[in-house]
Amino acid sequence: MRVLIKPDYDSCSKWAAEYIVYKIKLARPTAAKPFVLGLPTGSSPLGIYQELIKQNKEGKVSFQNVVTFNMDEYIGLPPDHPQSYCRFMWDNFFNFIDIKKENVYMLDGMTRDYVSECQRYEEAIQKVGGVNLFLCGIGTDGHIAFNEPASSFASRTRIKLLKPETTKANARFFGGDSTQVPEKVLTVGIGTIMDADEVMLIASGKNKQEAIRQTIEGGVNHLCPASILQMHEHAIVICDECAADKLRPDTIKYFKNIERANMVKK
Ligand code: GLP
After folding, report:
1. For the segment 24-43, what is each residue's pLDDT rounded down to a tens digit?
2. Cα–ligand 1 centroid distance for 41 (angstroms)
3. How far apart are alpha carbons 254 and 260 in whole angstroms?
4. What's the pLDDT at 262?
5. Residue 151 near residue 225, CB atoms below 8 Å
């Protein structure tokens, strides 16, 4: 696991966006062999999306041959609902870049056949050759996508029931009223995320300190779903100094030294 500790949210976002741009360019994607990105919603990726929009507008990166798969969606919210993850993605990212509409994959929260919808999603991922880079945020309890604590590490895309803590945390997007937050969701599984060539997790702020500590220093444990990234060959955790504050000084020193050595190599 590679861990980058940056001074603040903006520097985390900038680094992550530049890395995504670098990976897209390196892949030289074509229509036949697109670059496949897994994407999250939430506050954490907003800075990355803004930076990617900027770089796209400046002509530094194109999304013409990029295919995206979003991680999750609330059940019962139509795609144009102000709080649906579909709407979030178009309002905050897709409307401002040159991505093709047909290259954007979202789970359909309005489906009545959850099993087929989740299977369709897994098959679509397979059909494009798998995800090259999965970007993730992290919940305060260590959840990734909507894989709540105690989710199976082998899980695939499926229906999940949210914990009251998660509906409460997400109530801020629903006018502060947690009763308005759908309890049921569709989400990619931990196994789906782990199948990606690379996984990048971003975290910032005090409320992520414990989740980051458990992800990086705790044992691999399904009670902190993000800790599975310790088992991924190419996982990057990018956090600001505040989110990293509960890590042991030795851990911080270790990862900072590695990055310093990497910089010298370049
Ligand atoms: C939700 C999303 C996750 C996201 C998490 C943290 O539960 N399903 O994908 O990572 O919230 O969100 P935020 O980045 O707003 O803290």
Report:
1. 999 999 999 999 999 999 99
2. 6
3. 10
4. 83
5. yes
> Which has the closest alpha carbon to 5: 243, 261, 230?
243
Most informative mutation of 9, 12, 44 for ligand 1 (most atoms within 8 A of CB): 44
Please tell me what DSSP assigns to residue 29: -
Edge-first strand listing for the sheet containing 2-6: 2-6, 235-240, 198-203, 133-136, 35-39, 66-70, 104-105
- The alpha carbon of 262 and the centre of ligand 1 are apart by a number of angstroms equal to 30
Distance, CA of 109 to CA of 76 (rounded, Å): 6
Write out pLDDT tens, residues 170-222: 999 899 999 999 999 999 999 999 999 999 999 999 999 999 999 999 999 99
Report the Cα–Cα distance between both ends of the chain, in Å, rounded: 19
Ligand 1 centre distance from Cα of residue 243 (Å): 15
CA distance 249 to 231: 23
- 72 close to ligand 1 (CB < 6 Angstrom): yes
Which sequence positions are flagged as catalytic?
A: 72, 141, 143, 148
DSSP-derived letter for residue 105 is E
